[in-house]
Design brief:
The protein is an alpha/beta fold. It contains 13 helices and 22 strands. It folds into 2 domains: 5-214 and 431-491, FAD/NAD(P)-binding domain, CATH 3.50.50; 264-426, Flavocytochrome C3, Chain A, domain 1 (Alpha-Beta Complex), CATH 3.90.700.10. The strands form 5 sheets. Strands 1, 2, 9, 10, 11, 12, 21 and 22 form an 8-stranded mixed beta sheet that branches. Strands 13, 15, 16, 17, 18 and 19 form a 6-stranded mixed beta sheet that branches.
């Protein structure tokens, strides 16, 4: 039975919520987690992830506390390199067109390693992220700044966090939809929640909102992101409909950040409306850097090889959404088919194969075949042999003379068999959120004064991401700001 009181109530059941809950518990608070979803669909977007996390580290020494059980063989063969705080800052500033809030970004970057080590100390297990590596004659080397993932992916991460919280005496309630905040005009004193069909007031010293953005709300998407966004597919949970944002804005919280922006990717054109936990992230189609993408006119529309996938995938969903009919086909030939990521080999995939480029053109549904053949011809002529093809690094193998260049991994599309995969836009999460005090995680009101008793974390924090996003930063942000919010909530720091 749900008791009417806790020291800290945490709203949400994903990574940010559990990091907040674990930190609050560590600071001595009696913690209650309220998760809207039923247990079988719980865990938010976190559960859909592969559990990849981006954090700054100076070398292997820093990773040892995060992956203490690496074997001797792994230590000898894996070269993690370094991803310094400066690298992380550079990637955040570059990806966001220098708009990321400096104070939030500073906390994210400088606390990232410590927070990973904290999670590992608490009992979360991490593994090397081998899908982000390549092998040369000596070693397996990692690229793109993401070198670890949670054991068992996002499902493993949130399951472990839940176990740890419960083992420490914390409560987790499912089917518990928080409807509003208890606010007396000065401070937040708890929440109104509907649990299993019954309305309850839960009183608390502090409330941490970690209940996601508004990506699963088609009306809000159309309202804030703009025309066409109502039609896109949701990659993750159907439960992130902006409830926490609405509740906070209703009591005067300050909105902050890129409310017209979001993370979105190329996602199977026939994927369902919301994420499917059986398929997880595998509707994504992330091998486009080694192929070409064409639209309904048969034309390329973006530099597929502008950068490593980690730095382009989150903004290319929008570019696909903006094409006629909101779709694209990714095209590969025998030179690259063998290099396609595992998500291209799932059963639920929109794919055509052909023995000649003409046959392929006829099979690309919705595409002007003549335009496509013309485009491939022009593209093939523009491919330079200026550098060897190397999919693991920015190889500089490019096209020349095209209005839309391909800057890396340019190979002609001319060797049968050919394969093409149809993608639409899949939204991951929204960038707009609440303004928090970067030192405490306390939500600020529109006068920039603290809303006492109210904290926010994860996707709900505005001001970090604008336009684009470096892969693996969502979970890291949830962990850093979740831990901060939980600690401050337990101590009553505004
Ligand atoms: C397919 C996919 C793959 C991804 N891969 C990665 C990756 O590898 N690495 C990475 O860093 N990021 C990844 N992301 C992004 C990442 O999932 C998010 O940035 C992160 O999980 C957000 O964590 P969160 O705790 O803020 O939100 P969530 O994990 O979404 O949790 C929000 C929770 O709030 C609950 N909730 C909503 N409304 C209410 C309410 N009214 N009352 C109570 N509870 C409520 C929801 O049920 C949910 O449990 C991926 C996302 C998707 C969809």
């Amino acid at each position: 039975m749900l008791e009417g009181k806790a020291d800290v109530v945490v709203v949400g059941g994903g990574n940010a919520a559990f990091c907040a809950a674990l930190a609050a518990q560590e600071a001595g608070a009696k913690v209650m987690v309220l998760e809207r979803a039923p247990v079988e669909e719980s865990g938010g977007n976190t559960r859909f992830t592969s559990g990849s996390m981006r954090f700054a580290f100076d070398g292997f020494e820093d990773l040892m506390p995060i992956m203490p059980d690496l074997s001797e063989h792994e230590r000898a063969t894996l070269d993690f390199g370094a991803y310094t705080a400066d690298d992380f800052f550079d990637d955040m500033f570059r990806a966001t067109n220098y708009r990321t809030d400096p104070a939030l970004c500073e906390r994210l970057v400088t606390q990232s390693l410590e927070t990973m080590q904290w999670l590992a100390r608490r009992g979360v297990r991490f593994l090397p992220k081998l899908s982000q590596s390549y092998r040369d004659s000596e070693k397996i080397r990692f690229t793109g700044g993401v070198v670890v993932e949670a054991s068992g992916g996002g499902d493993g991460l949130v399951t472990r966090q839940t176990e740890l919280l419960i083992a420490g005496g914390g409560e987790v309630h499912y089917n518990a939809k928080v409807l509003s905040l208890l606010f007396d005009g000065v401070r937040v004193n708890g929440v109104k929640v509907r649990v299993d069909g019954e309305l309850r007031d839960i009183h608390a010293k502090s409330v941490v909102l970690a209940c996601g953005g508004f990506e699963a709300n088609s009306e809000w998407r159309a309202r804030y992101l703009g025309p066409g966004w109502d039609l896109v597919k949701v990659r993750g949970t159907r439960f992130n409909s902006g409830d926490g944002l609405r509740m906070a804005l209703e009591i005067g919280a300050s909105p902050f950040g890129n409310w017209t922006g979001c993370h979105s990717v190329g996602w199977d054109a026939n994927a369902p409306e919301f994420g499917d936990l059986e398929v997880g992230a595998l509707f994504q189609k992330h091998s486009y850097p080694i192929g070409i993408m064409i639209n309904a006119n048969g034309r390329r529309f973006v530099d597929e090889g502008a950068d490593l996938r980690q730095f382009t995938y989150a903004k290319y969903g929008r570019v696909v959404m903006e094409q006629p009919g909101q779709f694209a086909w990714q095209v590969f030939d025998s030179k690259t088919i063998k290099l396609l990521r595992p998500e291209y080999r799932i059963r639920k995939v929109t794919k055509v194969s052909a023995g000649s480029i003409g046959e392929l053109a006829a099979k690309l549904e919705g595409v002007d075949a003549a335009g496509f053949l013309d485009e491939v011809k022009a593209y093939n002529c523009a491919v330079m042999n200026n550098a060897p093809f190397h999919p693991g690094i920015r190889d500089g193998r490019r096209t020349e003379g095209l209005a839309i260049p391909k800057s890396n991994w340019a190979n002609t599309i001319d060797e049968p068999p050919f394969e093409a995969y149809q993608v639409g836009c899949g939204i991951t999460f929204t960038f707009g959120g609440l303004r928090i005090n970067p030192e405490t995680g306390c939500v600020l009101d529109t006068d920039m004064a603290p809303l006492h008793g109210l904290y926010a974390a994860g996707e709900m924090v505005g001001g970090l991401f604008y336009f684009n996003y470096p892969g693996g930063t969502g979970l890291m942000s949830g962990a850093v700001f979740g831990r901060l919010a939980g600690t401050s909530a337990a101590r009553g720091e505004a």
